[in-house]
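Lab notebook page, bench 4
Experiment: in silico fold of construct C2
Operator: M.H.
Input chain length: 142 residues
Purpose: comparison with the prior construct
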Amino acid sequence: MPNYNKLILVGNLTRDPAVRVLPSQVTIADFGIAVNRRWKGADGQQCESVMFLDCTAFGKRAESINQWLRKGVAVLLEGRLEFDQWQDKDGNARSKHKMLVESWAFMSPPDKAQPAKPAPAAPPPAAPPPPIANDLDEDLPF
């Protein structure tokens, strides 16, 4: 039977992306997302739950996430679910699920879709050189 691992989430970033570069020059961005779920309970009361998930992106995708996304921005993420296992500093077994991001898109209004880090300003244009004065200019017919 074929396997399929696809995850699509819409939520808000819970923290700014943390970026690091591996010795192989691959950029990695780690961040979190919160996805809210609202429903009406059996008693008619509004209920809400929040699911928090850590996310990781690699390469150019990580660089663009670092440039454009900040805490609180609404985003659509598409990727796959991965299970991490490790031992903490006390030797205890730890594990968690996380999302490996394969693509993303803004869900925030356009006014929030501004670069998080401004692009470096272009240097001001150089002043034109002063005109060279000489006696030959007066003799020219034009």
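Observations: The two ends are 86 Å apart (CA to CA). The mean pLDDT is 84.
Next step: discuss at group meeting.
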